[in-house]
Specification:
Blueprint lengths: L1 E7 L3 H10 L6 E5 L15 E2 L9 H20 L3 E10 L2 H18 L6 E4 L1 H7 L7 E11 L1 H14 L3 E4 L3 E6 L4 E5 L4 E9 L5 H7 L26
Parallel strand pairs: 1-2, 1-10, 2-7
Antiparallel strand pairs: 3-6, 4-6, 5-6, 8-9, 9-10
Helix pairs in contact: 1-5
Length: 238
């Protein structure tokens, strides 16, 4: 039960890491306490491929741009549906309207150079795009996308399985021993796995997993609101 790389977590991130590693001659294991891949946070997100990710000089912002560009090719190779559309930052009052030019200037400077079109649209165009949105205008950012996250998880998993990646699902990591040249991973099933490298892709539980390896950090959580719409409406804005 010895591997080159063990990945803890079979969500979108863990599966994408396994997908990339499956192209090389390495032995890869993915461990997850859920009985199916993608049953953590990945099963509940909206499948939105973002462009704007403040703060703009952060690693998250830079990776959002790079990752956005990769999705069309990945979706084609994995036969996953993806729909490209725009995002609208709507001015709901006079203060918002006054700020629109500044918002456009900042976003165009940050994202325009990467090929994402940013422009201001007036109230008439906004109403044509989204009749149910009340606003005085908006900044439109092109390049967003919506992907079927269930298809994505399923196709990533299938690709990995077909290309030699092993999975230990329904298996919770309970402990770890860091040795000189390998890591021993202890599980709730009484067995152990050995790997030269371990990738922590446990999402919400990544801090708990990190502590098993002697690393200390905290995750701070917040609550938000999310509305999902489905249907056959052919609109460009969101």
């Amino acid at each position: 039960m010895s591997y080159d790389i063990a990945i803890i977590g079979s969500g979108v991130i863990g599966l994408f890491i396994a997908y990339e590693l499956a192209h090389y001659r390495v032995r890869v294991l993915v461990i997850d306490r859920e009985v199916e891949p993608g049953f953590g946070v990945s099963k509940g997100h909206a499948g939105v491929i973002h462009v704007v990710q403040p703060p703009f000089n952060s690693l998250r912002s830079k990776l959002a741009v790079e990752g956005n560009r990769m999705y069309d090719d990945i979706a084609e190779r994995l036969h996953v549906r993806i729909r490209r559309l725009s995002a609208l930052l709507v001015a709901r009052n006079l203060g918002h309207l006054i700020a629109l030019p500044a918002v456009w200037l900042i976003l165009n400077r940050v994202y325009g150079k990467h090929g994402f079109r940013v422009r201001i649209i007036g109230p008439r165009e906004l109403h044509r795009r989204e009749p149910n949105v009340n606003g005085l205008g908006a900044v439109e950012v092109e390049g967003y996308g919506v992907i079927n996250s269930f298809e994505l998880v399923s196709q990533l998993y299938n690709f990995c399985k077909l290309n030699g990646v092993d999975f230990a699902l329904g298996t919770e990591v309970r402990g770890a021993k860091v040795l000189d040249d390998e890591v021993v991973i202890l599980t709730n099933r009484g067995g152990e796995y050995r790997a030269k490298y371990v990738v922590n892709a446990a999402g919400l539980y990544s801090a708990d997993v990190a502590r098993l390896f002697g690393d200390e950090y905290r995750l701070e959580f917040g609550k938000g609101g999310l509305c999902l719409f489905s249907g056959g409406a052919n609109r460009q804005g969101t």
